[in-house]
Amino acid sequence: MASTRLLCLFSARVAGSTKTLARAGCSVCFRRNVSSSPSRRQSCMSAWVIDQYGTNGVLRYTDEVAVPAVSSPSEVMIKVHAASLNPLDISMRGGYGAKLLKLRRDPMSVMDSDSEFPVILGRDVSGVVVDCGSDVTHFTPGDEVWAAVPPWKQGSLAEFVTLTEYEVSHKPDLMSHTEAASIPYVASTALSALVNAGGLCRDSSSNKRVLITGGSGGVGTFSIQLLKAWGAHVTVTCSQNAEGLVRGLGADEVVDYTAGDVVEQLEIMEKFDVILDNVGGDTEQWAVGLLKPWSGAKYITLVTPLLLNTDSMGLLEGTIHAGFTLHTKALQNIISSGVFYRWGFYAPDGPALDEIRKLVDAGKILPVVEAQFPFTQVPQAFQKLEQGHARGKTVIRVAEKDDRQVEELVQNICTEAAESEQEGQGTAKQH
Fold first, then answer.
1. Arch. (CATH architecture) of 186-343
2. For the segment 236-262, what is each residue's pLDDT rounded down to a tens digit?
3. First and final C-alpha spacing in the chain
4. Of the candidates 33, 46, 326, 370, which lies 20 to 30 Å from 193 by C-alpha distance?
5. pTM of the model
6. For this UniProt entry, which residues form the secretion signal (predicted)?
């Protein structure tokens, strides 16, 4: 019975309305008031912001950021419990995509010079709904949710974030907020690349040969698990010290790029149906030749020049130049070998995360968290990510204090209940 009581701790990972601990045999319940919108109680929140683009020194902590109120009937406000960092956050901190993202935030900004600052980074969120617009039908205050925050919206390195309900999904039941925050952005990116650009899905991936370059990072570790759940054969390139990780996630073959010429190692293998390139650089120059010719094989790269071009050339010229580059490469490859050359991009998709939640709850996809930092150490988390050679995700515990208080409360309740039951059993034995 004591081991059963420990399941009560799992129920402490909630911040909703009344939650009952009956699943663990505890007949007590507790309540936290999260159903009221924070806008009714406070006008400002804590957040990490940048007021200019640059290196780690531009990160600034403040508790004077306006709470992002629900301004549309389809929006939900989320109390952030955990967030995670992606390489995109480092790039955006330095100004990557600034012009195009500013236009996406406000189409009228092309006519003026208003500043986009302060900007809040952070693309992953796991937390609890605290307010909903009048047209929201899928969520209510108290629901535990996860989401990928679009780059053009204020991010999750803050107490609250507001998104449309179509960008949000219910969090997997079997994951803590810390674990859940490691998945949404890489899942949305991988799904967009593999499904929209690669043409793969649950019903079409069986026995397809897929190569993932840079397989030990966030997108790579997620893609391995997703493709194996779909029945694909997965080959991964990574360094020797990450081989155990990717094999543990299901990779069928692993090529150590530090152990000699990676191209020679791959060329002796059977050719591939799909290549997902997380590395970029000169990879595409040799990777395309590893695909099956004239069979509908696809090369998808997540390292594209679109935002770099718009930053350096301006919105119009940069977009035209990027489009011409994509068209030229796609035409060359389809003519020479019948291979499709495509770019992959992140796309927000709450319903797609619903499908991922099912795989998570079925044990098919696990969180891969390399490091955790408290909210007070966001700059240190950025430094960790900038070191490179990621082995999963770097997670920020935003509402750590509240979570620990709830866990301690429930632990004390369950301990008292267990002791009371033991006393009752002892009394029964005496009689």
1. 3-Layer(aba) Sandwich (3.40)
2. 999 999 999 999 999 999 999 988 889
3. 21
4. 370
5. 0.82
6. 1-17
